[in-house]
Amino acid sequence: xxxxFSFFYGEWTVRNxxxxxxxxxxxxxxxxxxxxxxxxxxxxxxxxxxxxxPEWIGVSFRLFDVARQVWSIxxxxxxxxxxxxxxxxxxxxxxxxxxxxxxxxxxxxIRVRYRWTKxxxxxxxxxxxxxxxxxxxxxxxxxxxxxxxxVAATLPV
Length: 157
Hints:
157 residues, mainly beta, Lipocalin, 10-stranded antiparallel beta barrel
C-alpha cells in the first residue's frame, strides 16, 4: 500500500484559477468553482478522482508503480474522453509532490509539472506549470485550492 494520496480521499470544494492564455505573457486569470471526489483503488496503489466544474467533468487516474516507486497521473474530460498521454510521473518529498512529463503545446515542446502541496490536509493545493526551457523557468497556469467538504450522512428512510 502507498498512502501518498490518502490525504485527498473524500469530497472537496475546489477554487480554480486558470491563466487565460498559456505561454503568451498573459496575466489575466479566470476563476471558477467545482466539486471533487477522490477514492482509493487496489489498496492504495491507485486512486481516481472526479471533478465536476460548470462546463465540464474531469477525471484523474493515479497509479503507483511499485517496482519504480513512482506515481503516474493521467487526466481526461467529458469534452473528448481521451486519456491524456503521456502521464505526468513523480513522487512526494515530504508534503510536496512533483510530477513531470514532456509534451507538446500548440506546436511548442514543453515540460509539464504538476505540484501537490499537502502541508494542510484540510486544504491542499495543486498547481500546473509549463516550461519551454527544460525546467529552468516555469509559468504556472492553473491553481486549484481544495477545501474539504464535510458532507452530513443521510439515514435511509
